[in-house]
Every structure is written in structure tokens, then in C-alpha cells.
Amino acid sequence: EVELVESGGGLVQPGGSLRLSCAASGFTFSTYSINWVRQAPGKGLEWVSYISSGSTIFYADSVKGRFSISRDNAKNSLYLQMDSLRADDTAIYYCARGEGLAPSDYWGQGTLVIVSS
Amino acid sequence: SYVLTQPPSVSVAPGQTARITCGGNNIGRISVHWYLQKAGQAPVLVISFDSDRPSGIPERFSGSNSGNTATLTISRVEAGDEGDYFCQVWDTGSDHVIFGGGTKLTVL
Fold first, then answer.
1. B96 vs B89: CA distance, rounded Å
2. Could you report the per-residue pLDDT of B69-104, keeping only the tens digit for each?
């Protein structure tokens, strides 16, 4: 069974940093692309970043230069390093399996990030 | 960048047909995916590549895409279909995933 489990969320002050993790199981992680998608309280879905199986990387304009996506295929894990956090980064962050033009067919349950003083 | 436009809300009586639109410039030329997010849950894929139904999604869910509008159609709507529906595309111009703003489906 495909499973994605996010962790690492929490409360952080503006300007601070946080590292999110996404643990994958039930599929050959190294052969799939993964997205980070976030959802601010009461708002819609916002794509954050993408990393392909070959480590091609893309970022949303809103996080480019502040967030960094990476993967460790040996550990079946995906990461999102978030620096210079702002209040508008407050959201539930989901990892979702998806390949470019293809849909995100499996999603984790999300981890909540709150940026506040 | 590419913009997807959805109506904020759609209401329908049980047993009737709900249609949720997703507008975008020449959207008919690209693949559209649809997700349902129920309250407090992660999104679930309900339609992929305009009209394909993933395993486990009822046949009542269907999709179409032409011109400047993609449409998700839910036939014989049930109370359990309530939630927020999001359309999504991959914008090859920017290499970005784009989501529509979401449509809240209410079953009256």
C-alpha cells in the first residue's frame, strides 16, 4: 500500500527555519517525482515545489530562494528546507506523488507549519 | 503564469447532477486533473487526464475538457460527495503545477 507520511511541522518565528520530511513506502520511491503542496487555513491548494526522479527541481515563485527541496532515495524520503519563513507560509504542507504532466495520485495527511511570533 | 478559474460554490439536490467548471486559456489543449478534498482530509484524485477515473472512484464521476473549459460532472449526487473540488494542470511554459481556486460542493 502506497503511503506518504509528513513530519517536521510546528511553530516557528518569522525569519526562522524549519525542515519538513516525507517518508514514503509501498512503492519504488526512486522512480517517482514528488510534489510539495500547501494549504493555508481556509484557503485553496498551492503548489510549492517539485522534484523528479532524476532530481530536476522546480519552485513556486512565492518560495523560490527561500525553500529547498531534496530527496534521499536510500531512505525513501523527501525533504523541504524552509528558510526566511513568513507569516504567509503558515499552512498545512502535503507531499504528493506526481510526475509532471501526470496527477498527484497519492497524498500524505500533511504537517502543519505555523509562522508566528 | 497560467490561471485556472473555478466557481466558488455549487449547490445541488441529492440525486441530481452537479457540474463544476474550470476555466483556462485553451485548457482543452492540456490535461486536467480533479481532486476532492473533504473536510479535514487530504485531497483525493477523482479524475485524471481530463476524463480517466482512478480505481475506486464511482462511475458517477466523469470529466470533459474542450476549448477554454474543463468540466467535472457528478451524476446522482450523494451527501458523501460534499467537499472542495480542485482542478489542476501542469503549465509547461513555467514548469509549475497550477491549481484552480476550488469549488465547494454543497448537497442540499
1. 9
2. 999 999 999 999 999 999 999 999 999 999 999 999
